[in-house]
Design goal:
Two copies of one chain form a homodimer. The first copy, chain A, is of the alpha/beta class. The longest helix of chain A has 17 residues. The first copy, chain A, is globular. The interface between A and B is medium-sized, with 26 and 25 residues.
Chain lengths: 271, 271
């Protein structure tokens, strides 16, 4: 038994879809969440900048005597995890590995689509992960730079002409190609599951990277006897790098429950 | 005569529409441009964060022995200029004052529309500027958080369903209200002049804050005998806080000419 919290960070709000899955799968765990809302989005920035930001995010979380870190941002995971993980004393889990494995298991025709930020697509990480597990699988990747700002503006509903037009533009080559599995390679995208599923059709399996990663974290903590006492009622504490006002407004949409407790603003550049 | 350069900064690319106007109106001036592409956008962040960023942007420019600074970002100008300008040894010009004055001159029916980032609208700066000049003028403001990411993704053309839908949503209350003047209160928005003019109709005057501010800077430097020699051929040097690769790609769209010379990346957090 290990009562220490799990640290989770993301470039902003997207990681809350992964936190929601952690809360569901590990209700006994305390979670410290950091959303880098002062520097969101990460997915359009250079690798060097993203790595610097990720190190600061990790340094901040390490203060809380955490037992593990989950990088709940596909961009940060893709660009920085491999480069930085060995430098820290706790296990650092990402979202891309779990999503890649789930896609390989789900696909029957070996055609796997990926939508993600430009930085994640450019990293090639999903092709690498999927290729290592199933060399015959093919991956078609589409960078979707507008989906994060659209989601952060609450444009997520079916029938919204703007999000439906943008989704159709990004997904048309994937639908035409005939993938049977589509990796939502950004933790913002589960909010768009309904319009994406409607466009792609019911035969295409959508992979939620946060959900898959939460399962992996749950299994690994259980294997290592690092879970909290089952009777403990887990709490989540939220930190952000910009005004908490802006955070709380949208966070409940991502979490699908109200944000409890005070959200604190920190100066991430000091870490 | 004063051979020192003019410093210009913005949260990212938008300020280049103001640089373009400076180049046209003051072809003899050297310009140092800093685009904070590692932390763009400013317009959705808190006042405290924006003020911290603006001080760092000014500290960076002051290294270049500049004779004046132009804040080519309505958000930074609205939120931070008054608070910080007195602390520095060079005159600091904004874009909001010039745009507010131009709107008052242009409006016949006293109904002035404003579109800007959420932070600029929340600051109330345009109501303050316009009210001081013309107390009977009315101002209706609409925050347009999606326009900056759409412009930065090149969605600027008439006939683009996404930009036209978003523009129609944001501008409908202003058109229904009957403003005869519309302040483009963000230096990204001149790129959208064509679809905005098409939606608002030919009777509505659009105010380009960068163009108005460039005129003010030109007049004030001339009055103070701070202009460079008229035979000097002005050069512009560009600095950014994220990868220059991403910057150059779009910068030529904003400048309406190719970016000449190397674009250099700097670590703005060190200032």
């Amino acid at each position: 038994m290990d009562t220490r919290p799990i640290g989770v960070f993301d470039s902003g709000l997207g990681g809350l879809t992964a936190v929601r899955q952690l809360m569901r799968q590990l209700p006994g765990e305390d979670i410290i969440y950091f959303g880098d809302t002062g520097r969101v989005p990460y997915g359009v920035r250079s690798a060097e900048t993203i790595q610097r930001y990720v190190r600061q995010d990790i340094h901040f979380l390490l203060q809380f005597h955490i037992k593990a870190i989950m990088i709940a941002c596909n961009t940060a995971d893709a660009i920085a995890r491999e480069a930085v993980a060995g430098d820290y004393p706790v296990p650092i889990y990402g979202v891309t590995g779990a999503a890649g494995r789930a896609a390989v298991h789900a696909s029957k025709n070996g055609k796997i689509g990926l939508i993600a930020t430009p930085a994640t697509v450019d990293s090639g990480i999903f092709k690498k992960i999927i290729g290592a597990l199933q060399p015959r699988a093919q991956v078609m990747s589409v960078a979707c730079p507008l989906l994060v700002p659209l989601v952060e503006n609450g444009r997520v509903a079916r029938g919204d002409m703007v999000i439906e037009t943008v989704i159709a533009e990004y997904l048309k080559p994937l639908r035409d190609w005939g993938c049977d599995t589509l990796v939502l390679g950004c933790t913002h995208y589960p909010l768009l599951s309904a319009p994406i599923a409607a466009y792609m059709g019911t035969d295409v399996t959508l992979i939620d990277s946060g959900r898959e990663a939460a399962q992996t974290v749950a299994a690994q903590l259980a294997d290592s006897a690092l879970l909290n006492a089952p009777e403990h009622l887990g709490k989540t504490k939220f930190y952000v790098s910009d005004s908490p006002a802006g955070f709380e407004k949208l966070a409940s949409l991502f979490l699908q429950r109200p944000v409890e407790g005070a959200v604190e603003q920190i100066n991430i550049e000091a870490y």
